[in-house]
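Re: Re: ligand-bound prediction request (bumping)

Still looking for help on this. To restate: I need the protein modeled with MGD bound, output as structure tokens. Inputs repeated here so nobody has to scroll up.
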Amino acid sequence: MAGVANTWGYGAMTNSMNDIRHSKCIFMLGSNAAEAHPVAMQHILYAKEVNNAPLIVVDPRFTKLAAKATDYVRIRPGTDTAFVMGLVNEIVTNGWHDKDFIQKRVAGFPEMCEKASHYTPEVVEDITGIPASEVKRIARILATHRPGTVIWCMGATQHSIGSSNTRALCILQLVLGNMGVSGGGTNIFRGHDNVQGATDMCVLSHSLPAYYGIKDGSWKHWCRVWDVDYEWMKSRFHSKEYMNKKGFTLARWYQGVIQEDKINQYTPIKAVVFWGCASNSQSQYHKLKKALDLLDLVVIIDPFPTMTAAACAKDNVYLLPSSSQYETEGSVTSSSRQIQWRFKVVDPVHDSKDDYWIMNEMVKRFGFHDKFYKNIKKIPDDITRELCKGSLTIGYNGALPERIKKHTLNWETFDVDTLKARGGPCDGEYYGLPWPCWTETHPGTPILYDISKPVAKGGLPFRARFGTEHTYWNGRKENLLAAEGVYNPGSEVKGGYPEFKNIVPGTNWKTDLSQKTIKEAIKRGMAPFGNARARCVCWNFPDQVPVHREPLHSPRPDLVAKYPTYPDKKDQYRVYTRFKSEQRPELVKKFPYVLITGRMVEHMGGGAETRSNKYLAELKPHMYAEINVRLANNLGIRNGDMIWIESPEQGRIKVMAKVTDRVDEKTIFLPFHFGGMFMGKSLEANYPKGTEPYAIGEPANIVTNYGYDIITQIQGTKEGLCQVSKA
Ligand SMILES: Nc1nc2c(c(=O)[nH]1)N[C@H]1C(S)=C(S)[C@@H](COP(=O)(O)OP(=O)(O)OC[C@H]3O[C@@H](n4cnc5c(=O)[nH]c(N)nc54)[C@H](O)[C@@H]3O)O[C@H]1N2
Ligand SMILES: Nc1nc2c(c(=O)[nH]1)N[C@H]1C(S)=C(S)[C@@H](COP(=O)(O)OP(=O)(O)OC[C@H]3O[C@@H](n4cnc5c(=O)[nH]c(N)nc54)[C@H](O)[C@@H]3O)O[C@H]1N2
Ligand SMILES: [Mo]
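Reply:
Sorry for the wait, this slipped through. Here it is.
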């Protein structure tokens, strides 16, 4: 359950880590897998060596991953949409797109092309800093090496237009016809070991488990699963409105306390529980600290006190020591949608209790135990069982605890290339029953949207989610279902079809708890969720087709005028969120350098765990800033000197200079794993005695800038501005 409170990532892998072994080309954007996903590197390097696959790495820094690339592309932070739409334009202009695939399985292609045509190689060069000739060369590599995989991580998502970046990358794969095939797909390497599981269970403020949302129908569905009266549930809310209103997000909850941006809630927040969350992982940390000092109550449920405890100036903190993942058991879901059983290694040590125990006690003392533990006799098996029962949208229903355990205990029987068991007790099934796993005998779905296999054997078309027809802004009408002739082997309907409903009257495949609807669809060789086209145009997004918009704090005032950000959003997850009113083109005069942040292999997240480990702390004891050689020389800064980094929001940190050509002259990089210092002062004395980490340092997030994604509200920690001076 490590870090379950965090679900910053975006999406799930369509294929799997192992399937990258079949790729003919690997396009990685905003990922430093050599440090953040070192185990996955075996598959990437396999494809590179064995298939001779080009490895294209797009990053503002020359990272450890870039060192393994065949083609490294240095990009200006926050401009990936322009680059990717430029690649799409170049591919289409040259006629390299997969015409058959697009004609049969894609919607909104002409409208998308119209928008993409703006991004000529020369326009892309101006926005991104990538030479026009490179844009053309990379497009040709992608077109001549199929199927290729696209991999993205936090370098793509932590931006005000992060959601546009991810959509542009999906469009790229659709245009290349790289979806639904082995070696292709969009493969998002996710964060914590179970962050996919946490996302699937929607440890989020705008959805119930399995992406059901928070509308009345969703509440009623889960109330049925939990066997809790819907009216009672409703009575727990301040008013009905709040039952259907998105909550605060992790990125901005503290505004619910300090209210520097207006909040849309009947009361300010008075208490906070950090359950497996480091807090120094949140941007605008000096603002968050103000909130810690105002709160009546702070509860930290963590194996370590974390920086949060040290940052609270008031005596308002309770520490509940939880045990680690090795001291408990349960199901966990990987980036590749594969579920495993994690068995207990030792009983909880010292005074710690596992998270289940803590949850159970809290629920008891709040007085809800009779309501929520009705189906839970054996922990954690019955918890997984209950989640399976309700999580029909993503087909967790077939992944019962017995099956998951059987897979984990027999993992040597599965093939490393295909993930399929060859003989043994799981014969023919895919490792970890990658969701959707539609029935108790379904083998799991190793590759999403693959129409070469029957649905009962792990195949799937694209989901029919947005109706059957759409009229675009230019008046063109399009049928959104897949074309004739597109279907999985054995399908009763030989073309597109809508989702299954009313098999059990008044229900659909997502709400029919008897699962008759799902079984009926599978029996007829069809997908419960229908067979549609993938959309290039999302009419429910502020930009229907991804377009470039300058970061809120941009180093290019000329481009701010040309590509301004969005209007402010009055109620984004209960907070007024500034876009246009925060985009101040003059800022670059005082804060001339672009600030990006990220990871190193030795430390994890906020660093509470790894900086409390003396071996890791010894490997990387100091907080530092990467600064270019030429810039350092011009500022009179030597390698190892202490420097001040300052943000436009009056955050400042004192860190060590690491003089390097990894970053260019305009860019500063900070790792975000440090804590225990605050704007030049040590907080070491504030830790409970004996729990001080072996390494402390300034949190990068004191200087990361204001700025959040227009859809997800993920913090824009990879596109701010800063000033640098010698300390
Ligand atoms: N050792 C270790 N491993 C980890 C973690 C850890 O803390 N430590 N954390 C885990 C978690 S929670 C996650 S989410 C993953 C994250 O894994 P990654 O996203 O791979 O890690 P980051 O270093 O945050 O970011 C990746 C790269 O994005 C680049 N970047 C910054 N801005 C831009 C931009 O505008 N465009 C592009 N193209 N690139 C940009 C950065 O220079 C950086 O090299 O790692 C997981 N693995
Ligand atoms: N500037 C900047 N900021 C970032 C990012 C960035 O790239 N740049 N990345 C963002 C991303 S992608 C993420 S995911 C977040 C990560 O931010 P956090 O999730 O806040 O960071 P972690 O250190 O991973 O926090 C996990 C906490 O869970 C505790 N823990 C471990 N195991 C267990 C357990 O079994 N039970 C309980 N109760 N606790 C446990 C650990 O001790 C740790 O304190 O940071 C975000 N912040
Ligand atoms: Mo993450």
